[in-house]
Design brief:
about 450 residues; alpha/beta; Gyrase A, domain 2; Four Helix Bundle (Hemerythrin (Met), subunit A); Rossmann fold; 3 domains; six-stranded mixed sheet; about 45% helix; binds guanosine-5'-triphosphate; binds magnesium ion
Protein backbone atom coordinates (compact mmCIF):
# COMPACT_ATOMS: atom_id res chain seq x y z
CA UNK A 1 0.00 0.00 0.00
CA UNK A 2 1.47 3.33 -1.00
CA UNK A 3 1.57 6.36 1.24
CA UNK A 4 -0.42 9.32 -0.06
CA UNK A 5 0.04 13.04 0.47
CA UNK A 6 -2.11 16.03 -0.44
CA UNK A 7 -2.92 19.58 0.46
CA UNK A 8 -6.21 19.42 2.38
CA UNK A 9 -6.95 23.16 2.13
CA UNK A 10 -7.45 25.30 -1.02
CA UNK A 11 -4.24 26.34 -2.75
CA UNK A 12 -3.52 30.02 -2.15
CA UNK A 13 -2.10 32.47 0.32
CA UNK A 14 -3.60 31.95 3.78
CA UNK A 15 -2.56 32.09 7.42
CA UNK A 16 -2.03 28.33 7.53
CA UNK A 17 -2.43 25.38 5.16
CA UNK A 18 -3.03 21.72 6.00
CA UNK A 19 -1.03 18.93 4.38
CA UNK A 20 -2.22 15.40 5.06
CA UNK A 21 -0.19 12.20 4.72
CA UNK A 22 -1.59 8.67 5.16
CA UNK A 23 0.09 5.29 4.89
CA UNK A 24 2.91 3.06 6.09
CA UNK A 25 5.72 5.50 5.21
CA UNK A 26 4.53 8.13 7.72
CA UNK A 27 7.19 7.12 10.28
CA UNK A 28 9.97 7.42 7.65
CA UNK A 29 8.62 10.79 6.59
CA UNK A 30 8.70 12.01 10.20
CA UNK A 31 12.30 10.84 10.63
CA UNK A 32 13.51 12.54 7.46
CA UNK A 33 11.39 15.69 7.18
CA UNK A 34 10.71 16.36 10.89
CA UNK A 35 13.88 15.11 12.67
CA UNK A 36 13.00 16.68 16.05
CA UNK A 37 9.37 15.51 16.08
CA UNK A 38 8.70 13.13 19.01
CA UNK A 39 5.61 11.60 17.30
CA UNK A 40 3.56 11.65 20.50
CA UNK A 41 0.16 10.40 19.28
CA UNK A 42 -2.58 12.99 18.70
CA UNK A 43 -0.47 15.80 20.15
CA UNK A 44 0.32 19.01 18.31
CA UNK A 45 4.04 19.83 18.23
CA UNK A 46 5.80 22.88 16.81
CA UNK A 47 8.67 21.54 14.67
CA UNK A 48 11.37 22.95 12.43
CA UNK A 49 11.63 21.63 8.91
CA UNK A 50 13.92 22.53 6.01
CA UNK A 51 11.33 25.03 4.73
CA UNK A 52 9.13 26.22 7.58
CA UNK A 53 8.41 26.00 11.30
CA UNK A 54 5.09 24.23 11.46
CA UNK A 55 2.66 22.34 13.64
CA UNK A 56 2.60 18.56 13.24
CA UNK A 57 0.21 15.95 14.61
CA UNK A 58 0.67 12.19 14.34
CA UNK A 59 -2.32 9.81 14.44
CA UNK A 60 -1.09 6.22 14.64
CA UNK A 61 -3.05 3.42 12.94
CA UNK A 62 -5.67 2.14 13.45
CA UNK A 63 -7.15 5.09 15.39
CA UNK A 64 -7.08 7.58 12.58
CA UNK A 65 -9.44 8.87 9.92
CA UNK A 66 -8.18 6.42 7.28
CA UNK A 67 -7.28 3.62 9.72
CA UNK A 68 -3.65 4.03 8.61
CA UNK A 69 -0.82 6.07 10.13
CA UNK A 70 -1.65 9.72 9.46
CA UNK A 71 0.54 12.78 9.70
CA UNK A 72 -1.06 16.22 9.57
CA UNK A 73 1.16 19.21 8.93
CA UNK A 74 0.12 22.83 9.33
CA UNK A 75 2.67 25.00 7.51
CA UNK A 76 2.19 28.71 6.82
CA UNK A 77 -0.27 29.13 3.96
CA UNK A 78 2.29 30.03 1.32
CA UNK A 79 1.84 28.00 -1.91
CA UNK A 80 5.64 27.88 -2.38
CA UNK A 81 6.20 26.38 1.09
CA UNK A 82 3.37 23.90 0.50
CA UNK A 83 4.75 22.81 -2.89
CA UNK A 84 8.31 22.33 -1.56
CA UNK A 85 7.04 20.40 1.46
CA UNK A 86 4.92 18.05 -0.65
CA UNK A 87 7.78 17.57 -3.16
CA UNK A 88 10.12 16.51 -0.36
CA UNK A 89 7.55 14.14 1.13
CA UNK A 90 7.02 12.54 -2.29
CA UNK A 91 10.76 11.75 -2.48
CA UNK A 92 10.38 9.25 0.40
CA UNK A 93 10.08 5.74 -1.11
CA UNK A 94 6.52 4.45 -1.39
CA UNK A 95 5.01 7.94 -1.25
CA UNK A 96 3.01 9.66 -3.97
CA UNK A 97 0.39 12.39 -4.46
CA UNK A 98 -3.14 11.35 -3.47
CA UNK A 99 -5.87 10.87 -6.06
CA UNK A 100 -9.27 12.50 -5.71
CA UNK A 101 -11.15 11.26 -2.65
CA UNK A 102 -8.43 8.76 -1.82
CA UNK A 103 -8.30 9.53 1.91
CA UNK A 104 -12.05 8.94 2.19
CA UNK A 105 -11.79 5.82 0.04
CA UNK A 106 -9.14 4.41 2.37
CA UNK A 107 -11.33 5.23 5.38
CA UNK A 108 -14.11 3.23 3.68
CA UNK A 109 -11.87 0.31 2.67
CA UNK A 110 -10.50 0.10 6.22
CA UNK A 111 -14.01 -0.03 7.68
CA UNK A 112 -13.81 3.40 9.33
CA UNK A 113 -16.94 4.67 7.55
CA UNK A 114 -19.52 3.11 5.26
CA UNK A 115 -20.58 4.41 1.85
CA UNK A 116 -23.49 6.50 3.16
CA UNK A 117 -21.07 8.25 5.50
CA UNK A 118 -18.55 8.76 2.70
CA UNK A 119 -21.28 10.38 0.62
CA UNK A 120 -22.40 12.43 3.63
CA UNK A 121 -18.93 13.95 3.81
CA UNK A 122 -19.63 15.49 0.39
CA UNK A 123 -22.92 16.89 1.73
CA UNK A 124 -21.16 18.27 4.80
CA UNK A 125 -18.60 20.15 2.73
CA UNK A 126 -21.19 21.67 0.39
CA UNK A 127 -23.99 22.42 2.90
CA UNK A 128 -24.90 26.10 2.54
CA UNK A 129 -27.62 26.32 5.15
CA UNK A 130 -28.19 25.04 8.66
CA UNK A 131 -30.74 22.39 7.61
CA UNK A 132 -28.47 20.81 5.04
CA UNK A 133 -25.63 20.93 7.53
CA UNK A 134 -27.69 19.28 10.29
CA UNK A 135 -28.79 16.57 7.86
CA UNK A 136 -25.25 15.90 6.64
CA UNK A 137 -24.11 15.56 10.23
CA UNK A 138 -26.88 13.04 10.96
CA UNK A 139 -25.94 11.05 7.86
CA UNK A 140 -22.32 11.17 8.94
CA UNK A 141 -23.15 9.62 12.29
CA UNK A 142 -24.68 6.72 10.39
CA UNK A 143 -28.42 7.35 10.94
CA UNK A 144 -29.39 6.10 7.49
CA UNK A 145 -26.90 3.24 7.60
CA UNK A 146 -28.46 2.00 10.84
CA UNK A 147 -31.95 1.95 9.28
CA UNK A 148 -30.71 0.23 6.14
CA UNK A 149 -28.85 -2.38 8.17
CA UNK A 150 -31.98 -3.18 10.20
CA UNK A 151 -33.98 -3.62 6.99
CA UNK A 152 -31.29 -5.83 5.46
CA UNK A 153 -31.35 -7.89 8.65
CA UNK A 154 -35.16 -8.25 8.37
CA UNK A 155 -34.76 -9.48 4.81
CA UNK A 156 -32.21 -12.00 6.00
CA UNK A 157 -34.68 -13.28 8.58
CA UNK A 158 -37.33 -13.66 5.87
CA UNK A 159 -34.86 -15.64 3.79
CA UNK A 160 -34.16 -17.88 6.79
CA UNK A 161 -37.89 -18.37 7.29
CA UNK A 162 -38.24 -19.32 3.63
CA UNK A 163 -35.46 -21.89 3.94
CA UNK A 164 -37.34 -23.48 6.82
CA UNK A 165 -40.51 -23.49 4.79
CA UNK A 166 -38.80 -25.35 1.97
CA UNK A 167 -37.38 -28.03 4.26
CA UNK A 168 -40.55 -28.38 6.26
CA UNK A 169 -42.76 -28.72 3.23
CA UNK A 170 -40.54 -31.33 1.68
CA UNK A 171 -40.27 -33.40 4.85
CA UNK A 172 -43.79 -33.36 6.10
CA UNK A 173 -45.81 -32.36 3.09
CA UNK A 174 -48.19 -30.04 4.94
CA UNK A 175 -50.24 -27.41 3.17
CA UNK A 176 -47.59 -24.82 2.42
CA UNK A 177 -49.97 -22.11 1.20
CA UNK A 178 -51.96 -21.86 4.36
CA UNK A 179 -48.96 -21.83 6.65
CA UNK A 180 -46.75 -19.47 4.72
CA UNK A 181 -49.27 -16.89 3.63
CA UNK A 182 -49.93 -14.97 6.80
CA UNK A 183 -46.81 -14.30 8.83
CA UNK A 184 -44.55 -14.08 5.81
CA UNK A 185 -46.85 -11.68 3.97
CA UNK A 186 -47.03 -9.45 7.03
CA UNK A 187 -43.28 -9.36 7.51
CA UNK A 188 -42.64 -8.63 3.83
CA UNK A 189 -45.37 -5.97 3.74
CA UNK A 190 -43.72 -4.24 6.71
CA UNK A 191 -40.44 -4.20 4.83
CA UNK A 192 -42.25 -2.82 1.79
CA UNK A 193 -43.78 0.01 3.85
CA UNK A 194 -40.42 0.89 5.34
CA UNK A 195 -38.83 1.01 1.86
CA UNK A 196 -41.66 3.25 0.61
CA UNK A 197 -41.15 5.65 3.51
CA UNK A 198 -37.41 5.75 2.89
CA UNK A 199 -38.06 6.61 -0.77
CA UNK A 200 -40.22 9.57 0.27
CA UNK A 201 -37.33 10.99 2.26
CA UNK A 202 -35.30 11.78 -0.84
CA UNK A 203 -34.28 15.43 -1.30
CA UNK A 204 -32.22 16.47 -4.28
CA UNK A 205 -28.94 17.85 -3.03
CA UNK A 206 -28.50 21.18 -4.78
CA UNK A 207 -26.00 23.85 -3.94
CA UNK A 208 -27.98 26.54 -5.72
CA UNK A 209 -29.33 29.26 -3.51
CA UNK A 210 -33.09 29.93 -3.50
CA UNK A 211 -33.87 32.68 -6.03
CA UNK A 212 -36.02 35.57 -4.82
CA UNK A 213 -36.94 37.86 -7.72
CA UNK A 214 -38.20 41.41 -7.11
CA UNK A 215 -40.27 42.84 -9.93
CA UNK A 216 -42.70 45.70 -10.58
CA UNK A 217 -42.96 49.08 -12.25
CA UNK A 218 -39.91 51.30 -12.78
CA UNK A 219 -39.15 53.38 -9.68
CA UNK A 220 -41.26 51.17 -7.41
CA UNK A 221 -38.29 50.87 -5.02
CA UNK A 222 -36.96 47.38 -5.90
CA UNK A 223 -33.27 48.25 -5.73
CA UNK A 224 -33.77 50.35 -2.60
CA UNK A 225 -35.54 47.44 -0.93
CA UNK A 226 -32.68 45.05 -1.75
CA UNK A 227 -30.13 47.51 -0.35
CA UNK A 228 -32.18 47.77 2.84
CA UNK A 229 -32.48 43.99 3.16
CA UNK A 230 -28.74 43.40 2.75
CA UNK A 231 -27.91 46.53 4.83
CA UNK A 232 -25.50 47.80 2.20
CA UNK A 233 -25.64 50.36 -0.62
CA UNK A 234 -25.09 47.53 -3.07
CA UNK A 235 -27.29 48.68 -5.97
CA UNK A 236 -27.68 51.93 -7.84
CA UNK A 237 -30.82 53.77 -6.80
CA UNK A 238 -32.30 56.97 -8.21
CA UNK A 239 -35.55 58.87 -8.63
CA UNK A 240 -35.19 58.48 -12.42
CA UNK A 241 -37.30 55.54 -13.66
CA UNK A 242 -35.33 52.86 -15.49
CA UNK A 243 -32.19 52.94 -13.33
CA UNK A 244 -31.83 49.14 -13.25
CA UNK A 245 -31.43 47.61 -16.70
CA UNK A 246 -29.55 44.34 -16.28
CA UNK A 247 -30.73 41.96 -13.59
CA UNK A 248 -28.41 41.87 -10.57
CA UNK A 249 -27.99 39.01 -8.07
CA UNK A 250 -27.28 39.93 -4.45
CA UNK A 251 -26.84 37.27 -1.74
CA UNK A 252 -28.82 37.88 1.43
CA UNK A 253 -27.45 36.21 4.56
CA UNK A 254 -30.31 34.97 6.73
CA UNK A 255 -29.70 33.30 10.12
CA UNK A 256 -30.20 29.77 8.74
CA UNK A 257 -28.68 30.22 5.29
CA UNK A 258 -28.37 32.38 2.21
CA UNK A 259 -30.88 33.30 -0.49
CA UNK A 260 -30.22 35.15 -3.73
CA UNK A 261 -32.13 38.43 -4.15
CA UNK A 262 -32.51 39.32 -7.82
CA UNK A 263 -33.13 42.91 -8.86
CA UNK A 264 -34.80 43.36 -12.25
CA UNK A 265 -35.55 46.11 -14.72
CA UNK A 266 -38.97 47.72 -14.16
CA UNK A 267 -41.90 46.40 -16.19
CA UNK A 268 -44.34 48.59 -18.17
CA UNK A 269 -47.12 47.88 -20.65
CA UNK A 270 -45.16 49.57 -23.43
CA UNK A 271 -41.43 49.72 -23.92
CA UNK A 272 -40.03 53.21 -24.56
CA UNK A 273 -37.02 51.93 -26.47
CA UNK A 274 -35.43 48.76 -27.79
CA UNK A 275 -33.20 48.55 -24.70
CA UNK A 276 -36.32 48.83 -22.52
CA UNK A 277 -37.89 46.00 -24.47
CA UNK A 278 -34.88 43.74 -24.04
CA UNK A 279 -34.59 44.58 -20.34
CA UNK A 280 -38.26 43.71 -19.79
CA UNK A 281 -37.90 40.45 -21.70
CA UNK A 282 -34.99 39.55 -19.44
CA UNK A 283 -37.10 40.31 -16.36
CA UNK A 284 -39.79 37.89 -17.62
CA UNK A 285 -37.18 35.17 -18.19
CA UNK A 286 -35.73 35.67 -14.71
CA UNK A 287 -39.21 35.49 -13.20
CA UNK A 288 -39.75 32.05 -14.72
CA UNK A 289 -36.79 30.65 -12.80
CA UNK A 290 -37.74 32.23 -9.47
CA UNK A 291 -38.39 30.30 -6.27
CA UNK A 292 -40.21 33.33 -4.86
CA UNK A 293 -41.61 36.28 -6.81
CA UNK A 294 -42.01 39.53 -4.90
CA UNK A 295 -44.11 42.22 -6.53
CA UNK A 296 -42.89 45.66 -5.42
CA UNK A 297 -45.48 48.47 -5.52
CA UNK A 298 -45.05 52.16 -4.76
CA UNK A 299 -48.17 52.74 -2.69
CA UNK A 300 -47.82 56.53 -2.65
CA UNK A 301 -48.95 56.73 -6.29
CA UNK A 302 -51.76 55.12 -8.29
CA UNK A 303 -51.52 51.41 -8.87
CA UNK A 304 -50.03 50.54 -12.26
CA UNK A 305 -52.64 49.30 -14.76
CA UNK A 306 -50.92 45.91 -14.93
CA UNK A 307 -51.23 45.46 -11.17
CA UNK A 308 -53.91 42.72 -11.22
CA UNK A 309 -52.04 40.68 -13.81
CA UNK A 310 -48.73 41.05 -11.94
CA UNK A 311 -50.30 40.24 -8.61
CA UNK A 312 -51.57 36.91 -9.99
CA UNK A 313 -47.99 36.00 -10.88
CA UNK A 314 -46.56 37.09 -7.52
CA UNK A 315 -46.04 35.04 -4.35
CA UNK A 316 -45.78 38.12 -2.17
CA UNK A 317 -46.52 41.84 -2.48
CA UNK A 318 -44.36 44.51 -0.87
CA UNK A 319 -45.78 48.02 -0.66
CA UNK A 320 -43.05 50.64 -0.56
CA UNK A 321 -43.13 54.42 0.11
CA UNK A 322 -45.45 53.81 3.05
CA UNK A 323 -43.86 56.85 4.75
CA UNK A 324 -45.03 59.15 1.93
CA UNK A 325 -48.46 57.53 1.65
CA UNK A 326 -48.90 57.85 5.41
CA UNK A 327 -47.95 61.48 5.57
CA UNK A 328 -50.29 62.29 2.68
CA UNK A 329 -53.15 60.51 4.37
CA UNK A 330 -52.04 61.89 7.75
CA UNK A 331 -52.56 58.45 9.17
CA UNK A 332 -50.61 57.01 12.03
CA UNK A 333 -47.31 55.60 10.83
CA UNK A 334 -47.20 52.15 12.39
CA UNK A 335 -44.23 49.80 12.12
CA UNK A 336 -46.04 47.38 9.84
CA UNK A 337 -49.32 45.74 9.01
CA UNK A 338 -51.74 48.33 10.41
CA UNK A 339 -51.57 50.68 7.50
CA UNK A 340 -54.46 50.47 5.05
CA UNK A 341 -53.31 51.66 1.64
CA UNK A 342 -55.43 54.31 -0.09
CA UNK A 343 -55.74 52.17 -3.21
CA UNK A 344 -57.85 49.01 -2.98
CA UNK A 345 -55.47 46.08 -3.10
CA UNK A 346 -56.71 42.59 -3.88
CA UNK A 347 -54.42 40.54 -1.74
CA UNK A 348 -56.18 37.21 -2.40
CA UNK A 349 -54.55 35.65 0.60
CA UNK A 350 -51.13 36.66 -0.59
CA UNK A 351 -48.59 37.67 1.93
CA UNK A 352 -48.16 41.44 1.88
CA UNK A 353 -45.65 43.74 3.56
CA UNK A 354 -45.56 47.48 4.10
CA UNK A 355 -42.17 49.09 4.02
CA UNK A 356 -40.79 52.58 4.38
CA UNK A 357 -37.12 52.29 3.60
CA UNK A 358 -36.01 55.72 4.89
CA UNK A 359 -37.45 54.80 8.29
CA UNK A 360 -36.34 51.15 8.04
CA UNK A 361 -39.95 50.16 8.62
CA UNK A 362 -40.97 46.58 7.75
CA UNK A 363 -37.49 45.46 6.64
CA UNK A 364 -36.78 43.26 9.66
CA UNK A 365 -40.22 41.63 9.32
CA UNK A 366 -39.63 40.92 5.64
CA UNK A 367 -36.26 39.35 6.41
CA UNK A 368 -37.90 37.15 9.07
CA UNK A 369 -40.59 36.12 6.58
CA UNK A 370 -37.95 35.03 4.06
CA UNK A 371 -36.24 32.99 6.77
CA UNK A 372 -39.59 31.29 7.59
CA UNK A 373 -40.32 30.56 3.94
CA UNK A 374 -36.96 29.09 3.00
CA UNK A 375 -35.82 27.60 6.28
CA UNK A 376 -39.00 26.62 8.14
CA UNK A 377 -38.66 25.15 11.59
CA UNK A 378 -40.03 21.66 11.08
CA UNK A 379 -41.27 19.58 13.95
CA UNK A 380 -39.97 16.29 12.65
CA UNK A 381 -36.28 16.36 12.06
CA UNK A 382 -36.26 13.17 10.02
CA UNK A 383 -33.02 12.53 8.22
CA UNK A 384 -33.27 12.94 4.41
CA UNK A 385 -31.51 10.85 1.83
CA UNK A 386 -29.61 13.01 -0.63
CA UNK A 387 -27.88 10.41 -2.79
CA UNK A 388 -29.55 9.33 -6.04
CA UNK A 389 -27.43 6.17 -5.91
CA UNK A 390 -28.91 5.21 -2.55
CA UNK A 391 -32.45 5.91 -3.76
CA UNK A 392 -31.87 3.75 -6.87
CA UNK A 393 -30.84 0.86 -4.55
CA UNK A 394 -33.93 1.39 -2.39
CA UNK A 395 -36.15 1.31 -5.51
CA UNK A 396 -34.49 -1.89 -6.66
CA UNK A 397 -35.09 -3.52 -3.27
CA UNK A 398 -38.70 -2.32 -3.36
CA UNK A 399 -39.27 -3.90 -6.79
CA UNK A 400 -37.90 -7.23 -5.54
CA UNK A 401 -40.17 -7.07 -2.51
CA UNK A 402 -43.20 -6.28 -4.72
CA UNK A 403 -42.47 -9.27 -6.93
CA UNK A 404 -42.05 -11.48 -3.87
CA UNK A 405 -45.45 -10.37 -2.55
CA UNK A 406 -47.10 -11.20 -5.89
CA UNK A 407 -45.49 -14.65 -5.85
CA UNK A 408 -46.63 -15.41 -2.30
CA UNK A 409 -50.00 -16.66 -3.50
CA UNK A 410 -48.37 -19.22 -5.79
CA UNK A 411 -47.67 -22.56 -4.15
CA UNK A 412 -44.54 -23.45 -6.12
CA UNK A 413 -42.71 -20.14 -5.94
CA UNK A 414 -40.79 -20.36 -2.67
CA UNK A 415 -37.41 -20.51 -4.35
CA UNK A 416 -38.18 -17.52 -6.54
CA UNK A 417 -39.40 -15.59 -3.50
CA UNK A 418 -36.17 -16.49 -1.71
CA UNK A 419 -34.24 -15.24 -4.73
CA UNK A 420 -36.11 -11.91 -4.71
CA UNK A 421 -35.43 -11.52 -0.98
CA UNK A 422 -31.72 -12.10 -1.55
CA UNK A 423 -31.70 -9.58 -4.39
CA UNK A 424 -33.50 -7.01 -2.21
CA UNK A 425 -30.97 -7.56 0.56
CA UNK A 426 -28.06 -7.20 -1.86
CA UNK A 427 -29.50 -3.91 -3.12
CA UNK A 428 -29.67 -2.61 0.47
CA UNK A 429 -26.19 -3.85 1.32
CA UNK A 430 -24.79 -1.94 -1.64
CA UNK A 431 -26.17 1.29 -0.11
CA UNK A 432 -23.80 1.01 2.82
CA UNK A 433 -21.06 -0.55 0.71
CA UNK A 434 -21.19 -3.94 2.44
CA UNK A 435 -21.46 -5.15 -1.15
CA UNK A 436 -19.75 -2.88 -3.64
CA UNK A 437 -18.02 -3.03 -6.97
CA UNK A 438 -15.11 -1.00 -8.20
CA UNK A 439 -17.10 1.08 -10.69
CA UNK A 440 -19.44 2.33 -7.94
CA UNK A 441 -16.53 3.20 -5.67
CA UNK A 442 -14.74 4.98 -8.51
CA UNK A 443 -17.83 6.99 -9.36
CA UNK A 444 -18.23 8.10 -5.74
CA UNK A 445 -14.65 8.89 -4.80
CA UNK A 446 -13.49 10.39 -8.09
CA UNK A 447 -16.12 13.13 -7.68
CA UNK A 448 -14.30 14.30 -4.54
CA UNK A 449 -11.50 16.80 -4.49
CA UNK A 450 -7.86 15.92 -3.93
CA UNK A 451 -6.97 15.87 -0.25
CA UNK A 452 -10.44 14.71 0.82
N1 LIG B 1 -39.75 57.80 0.70
C1 LIG B 1 -39.42 56.64 0.19
N2 LIG B 1 -38.67 56.59 -0.92
C2 LIG B 1 -38.36 55.39 -1.44
C3 LIG B 1 -38.76 54.18 -0.83
N3 LIG B 1 -38.30 53.16 -1.58
C4 LIG B 1 -37.63 53.71 -2.62
N4 LIG B 1 -37.66 55.07 -2.54
C5 LIG B 1 -37.11 56.01 -3.52
O1 LIG B 1 -37.74 55.74 -4.76
C6 LIG B 1 -36.84 56.01 -5.83
C7 LIG B 1 -36.76 54.81 -6.76
O2 LIG B 1 -36.13 53.75 -6.07
P1 LIG B 1 -35.36 52.59 -6.82
O3 LIG B 1 -34.96 51.64 -5.78
O4 LIG B 1 -34.30 53.12 -7.71
O5 LIG B 1 -36.53 51.99 -7.67
P2 LIG B 1 -36.49 50.75 -8.68
O6 LIG B 1 -37.77 50.02 -8.53
O7 LIG B 1 -35.25 49.99 -8.48
O8 LIG B 1 -36.49 51.51 -10.07
P3 LIG B 1 -35.91 51.05 -11.48
O9 LIG B 1 -34.55 50.49 -11.28
O10 LIG B 1 -35.91 52.30 -12.25
O11 LIG B 1 -36.86 50.04 -12.04
C8 LIG B 1 -35.52 56.38 -5.20
O12 LIG B 1 -35.39 57.79 -5.21
C9 LIG B 1 -35.63 55.85 -3.77
O13 LIG B 1 -34.87 56.59 -2.87
C10 LIG B 1 -39.55 54.27 0.36
O14 LIG B 1 -39.96 53.27 0.96
N5 LIG B 1 -39.84 55.50 0.80
MG1 LIG C 1 -33.65 49.58 -9.72
Amino acid sequence: MSTIVALATPLGVSAIAVVRVSGPAVKDICKIILPNFDMKPRTARLVNTFIDTLLAIYFPAPNSHTGEDILELFPHGNPFIVRKLIEEICKIPGTRLAERGEFTERAFLNGKIDLTQAEALGDLLSANNSKKLANARKLLTGEISAEIKTLAENLKEVSALLELEVDFAEDVGVDEDARRALPLRKVIENIQRHLQSLKKRFRVATNELPRVVLFGAPNAGKSTLINALVKEERLLVSEVPGTTRDFVEVPLHLPSGDVLLIDTAGLASEAQSNIDKQAMQKTCEILEKANLKILVIDVSIDLPPEFKEWEKNADMVVLTHIDIACSELRCKDTPSGDFVPATPLQKEGKCSFNVAVPKNTGIKELREKLEDIFFPKEESEEVWITSERQIACIKKAEECVERALELLSQSDAIETIAFEMREARNALCSITGEISDESILNAIFSSYCIGK
